[in-house]
Amino acid sequence: MKTTNNETTAIDSGSVSLQTTEAKSGFYESLFRKAMGNAKEGQMSVLIPGGRSFTLGEAKPGKQNAVLEVKDVHFFQHAVLYGEIGFGETYIEGMIDSPDMLRVLRWFVDNAVATPGFAAAGKKLFVNILGIANKIRHTLRPNTVKIARKNIAEHYDLSNEMYEYMLGSSMAYSSGLFLTGKEDLKTAQENKFESLCQKLQLKPGLHMLEIGSGWAGFAIYAAKKYGVKITTITISEKQFDYCKKRIEEENLQSLIELKLIDYRHIDGQYDRIVSIEMVEALGFRYFDTYFGKMASLLKKDGLMAIQAITMPDTRFSNYIKGESDFIQKHIFPGSCLLSQNEITRSLLRTSDLNIYHSESMAMSYTRTLAEWRKNFNENIEEIRKMGFSERFIRKWNYYLLYCEAGFGSRYINVIQLLFSRPQNTQLQDFHGLKNQ
After folding, report:
1. 61 Cβ contact partners less than 8 Å away, ≥ 6 residues apart
2. Could you give the CA distance from residue 198 to residue 361 in angstroms, rounded to a whole number?
3. Residue 38: predicted pLDDT
């Protein structure tokens, strides 16, 4: 088995060398400290080889200090010149570590407004070559029908077995819904499925289209509990094979139709449409294509629900205009988060659909990511035996920590949205999960 489709040395830096002199290392360290000078939300100690250290930020009651261990002083150059991507890459390469990397990442997120990017200090002095290269790389991976399949394969086709170890028995690669905080991961994922089913008012006789099959968890749940007919589509060949096997094992072929097809090529009319954390894979230029297509597929009195990772509307414009981020470069090529207002704008441009219900689940995603990380590391020896490298393991842990920090601080969010057309008398108010 190959290790990972995007398994290269993390610090490629557009072939920029990290061989700096000691004087240059000190120069970049000073820029890093200056860039972080306005941090006030908590304190972070930075430990440097040779016994030196310095402290950033201000101590806050009830907040434990973060500790960043610099193993290689070239870290400062890469962080200053290449920002948050560079920071993540130095972690992958073992140039930094921490007794609690989640706390370190939360410290950076909590201070994001006061310190809008430690690359800013470097950008005042240098052309950000890697930033430009990363932006070009991201731009050259638009989610056309052909490239979308390649982008999806780079993440979802890594290994079904690896995902089984991480996701657990539900095989749901999206946020669960922790209603009490005491549920296990499997129950939280079933809560999420049930929440969507109830919002969609599922019942026998309806035909539902699912955009993005995942590993068939939702389709199987909805078919077994509600007797609804489901057409579920994916462009991941490994997921398709896995779903086919699961559907056959559950003897649900009469209710679940599985297709290996891009959403742009699907046709027909459906009573319900559902999409669980698939829209992040669309890419900004395809938002209108997606929502316009969904409107054309949904019957006049139909309902559509999506679960989506979003960012605040106040940051969306800068996000779209800015350089690519760590996730786009190393984890989900071609991906792009949405904001709720951007969804509304796209709906206005392309359809007569409206948002009738919105529910935030950010804290549930924090817990979900922690459970995935726990599962991943508890099965780390089996994952190593599958051929995944130490660099991949560090990258994957950083990815999960990075996302957990983002949701935990509400820097990003995950929401469930319910859509309908005006004057749909079939639509019922939703006031929380009923007894399952």
Report:
1. none
2. 16
3. 87
